[in-house]
Design goal:
Layout: H1 17-20, E1 26-29, E2 32-35, E3 38-43, E4 47-52, E5 56-61, E6 66-71, E7 79-86, E8 90-96, E9 101-105, E10 118-122, E11 130-135, E12 141-146, E13 150-157, E14 162-170, E15 175-181, E16 184-189, E17 193-197, E18 202-206
Antiparallel strand pairs: 1-2, 3-4, 4-5, 5-6, 7-8, 8-9, 9-10, 11-12, 12-13, 13-14, 15-16, 16-17, 17-18
Pfam family, one: WD40
Organism: Eurystomus gularis
GO cellular component, one term: cytoplasm
Length: about 210
């Protein structure tokens, strides 16, 4: 007897013109016209976050159909990674080509939620391009990795407005992926994948052979 085929679901894909049209293709700096490249992307049910080559973060709110812009003070440098989180407050972490990491605590219209935009900086540990970011589900921990193999843990106290950061792991090759759950940080580099147990500060490699 022939098995019953599962139903086919058709999906339609189209460019997000309403989003792309809200981001400039060029900006003027003095007498120079600078092309804006889109360099990083993350999405969730509430927001679409787009990083750019001019250091501007474009954050599109899906519920309100509004685009907002956030940037770093000082040097205009490319954003290399963005990571959204929706917990009690909406958070977005941003990493740049020079190793700067910032967290924006977004404003919410819901009762009891954050009413003022706040920014936290991971100060001075990374010295090279940010290649990965990972949140804990409650937004109190942020892990950041760079292309020199450094992984930094940042503890955020949103109520007190404090961010304390420390170097927790250093690998010999670039970090390509981070994911965190239940006190275990999954780390993938160009050479290997490992589990870092944050309480014991111990490492367990996944597999035995290095990547080629």
């Amino acid at each position: 007897m022939a098995s019953v085929a599962s139903p086919v679901i058709f999906k339609e894909f189209c460019p997000l013109y309403y989003l792309l049209n809200a981001i400039p293709t060029k900006i003027q700096k003095g007498f120079r016209s600078i092309v804006v490249y889109l360099t990083a992307l993350d999405t969730n049910g509430d927001y679409i976050a787009v990083g750019s080559s001019i250091g501007m973060l474009y954050l599109y709110c899906r519920n309100l159909n509004q685009m907002k812009k956030y940037n770093f003070e000082g040097k205009c440098e490319s954003i290399t990674f963005v990571k959204l989180l929706s917990c009690f407050d909406d958070l977005v972490a941003v990493g740049t080509a020079s190793g700067r990491v910032a967290v924006f605590q977004l404003v919410s219209s819901l009762p009891g939620r954050n009413k003022q935009l706040r920014r936290f900086d991971v100060a001075g540990i990374h010295k090279s391009s940010i290649t990965a970011l990972a949140w804990s589900p409650n937004g109190m921990k942020l892990f950041s990795g760079d292309d020199k193999g450094k992984i930094v843990y940042s503890a955020l106290d949103l109520d007190q407005g404090v961010c304390n950061s420390s170097l927790v792991l250093e690998e010999p090759s670039s970090i390509v992926q981070l994911d965190y759950n239940q006190k275990v940080l999954l780390v993938s580099t160009l050479q290997r994948t490992l589990l870092f147990y944050t309480e014991e500060k111990s490492v367990k490699q996944v597999g035995t052979q290095p990547r080629k």
